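in:
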């Protein structure tokens, strides 16, 4: 997808790709509302109940499907209705109403993929997740490229929906096979017996995702409103695409560790819990730091592959590569808080993160304007949030039988 993005950026150009980023960041802010945290909820409860209560696993998975489809369609309808107002008032781009409405398809598919991936992670079906991501990634390349080539911005948005569509189809196949192998039945008529899960776990998880998504979207809008802001937003998104590639394996590792930590927390196995968290933090940090140090000297060369206009974003890329090291550690601590059920703690730390990001952007014109200012704001916010999560996990361990992490 990084290679495809490079080709699409060259087709669309810096300004049009900035508009594409603006539309995509807008829809991403609503995806978290549509998914309502069902993916991470399924991961936690499927992994904990798989051995002890298969009937309840079937109810959890059924609730996952029913609620995700209902909420994503409902949010997509509201999104389409509100598109003219958002484009005119919030992002000040009334000519993007059609493209914004078309991106509602991306909203529904992405929410469903997140829910399905959560189920597969709970089953610890990691090979299946890898196969699904690989198949959907490669299969979507021609659609994304052809959409941008012949349809411009509108075609690129439709083409970007191909990846989650293929991912959804592959995930459905693997989940059905896993259910049949484990003799688990999705109990749709009984799924509402698990409605308490929505309020005890999904609500704080959703609030965290909503807050991060809307703040990220708000930051994109604030950046776009600066002088030459749309182009700067394109530069920031291109650099973030490279950062996403660097974080690919650490993100997978952090997601993989959730079911293991949930099981160890249920067993009150302090030693293995401590070792699992510590090893994942060390391995993720070493892997990401090594890759970041290798790429930083080539930052200008990397940005030039997207076009000569993006060379000025080399400094932004350097900051985001440094940030990737912090995020790789932060992801592990987020998994630990999830396994401990401390999602309200995560929510309040995300509030602090949001204040730092938006506060820094309000002062953007006074210290570091443009894409690099947003990158530095993100770095500062993640440093504070990661330190806060570490402290909260340590305090939780002291209050429970898991005495040390």
């Amino acid at each position: 997808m990084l290679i495809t993005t490079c080709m699409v950026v060259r087709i669309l150009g810096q300004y049009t790709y900035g508009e594409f980023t603006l539309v995509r960041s807008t829809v991403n802010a609503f995806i978290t509302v549509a998914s309502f945290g069902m993916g991470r909820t399924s991961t936690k409860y499927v992994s904990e109940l798989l051995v002890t209560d298969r009937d309840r696993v079937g109810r959890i998975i059924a609730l996952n499907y029913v609620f995700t489809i209902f909420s994503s369609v409902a949010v997509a309808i509201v999104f389409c209705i509100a598109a003219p107002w958002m484009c005119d008032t919030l992002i000040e781009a009334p000519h993007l109403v059609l493209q914004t409405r078309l991106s509602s398809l991306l909203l529904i598919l992405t929410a469903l993929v997140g829910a399905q991936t959560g189920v597969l992670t709970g089953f610890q079906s990691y090979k299946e997740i890898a196969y699904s991501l690989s198949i959907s990634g490669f299969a979507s390349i021609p659609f994304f490229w052809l959409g941008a080539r012949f349809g411009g911005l509108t075609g690129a948005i439709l083409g970007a929906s191909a990846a989650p569509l293929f991912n959804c189809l592959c995930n459905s196949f693997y989940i059905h096979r896993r259910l049949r192998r484990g003799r688990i039945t999705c109990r749709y008529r009984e799924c509402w017996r698990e409605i308490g899960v929505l309020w005890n776990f999904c609500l704080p998880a959703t609030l965290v995702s909503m807050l991060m998504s809307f703040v990220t979207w708000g930051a994109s809008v604030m950046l776009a409103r600066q002088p030459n802001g749309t182009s700067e937003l394109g530069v920031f998104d291109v650099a973030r695409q490279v950062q996403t590639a660097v974080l690919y394996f650490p993100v997978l590792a952090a997601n993989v560790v959730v079911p293991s930590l949930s099981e160890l927390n249920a067993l009150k196995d302090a030693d293995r819990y401590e070792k699992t968290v510590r090893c994942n933090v060390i391995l993720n940090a070493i892997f990401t730091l090594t890759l970041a140090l290798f790429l930083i000297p080539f930052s200008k060369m990397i940005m030039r592959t997207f076009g000569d206009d993006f060379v000025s974003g080399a400094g932004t890329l350097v900051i985001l590569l440094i940030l990737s090291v912090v995020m790789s550690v932060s992801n592990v601590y987020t998994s630990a808080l999830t396994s401990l059920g401390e999602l309200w703690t995560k929510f309040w730390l995300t509030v602090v993160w949001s204040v730092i990001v938006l506060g820094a952007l309000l002062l953007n014109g006074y210290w570091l304007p443009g894409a690099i200012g947003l990158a530095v704001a993100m770095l500062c916010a993640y440093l504070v949030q990661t330190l806060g999560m570490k402290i909260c996990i340590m305090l939780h361990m002291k209050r429970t039988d898991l005495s040390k992490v």
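note: Residues 1-194 form one domain.
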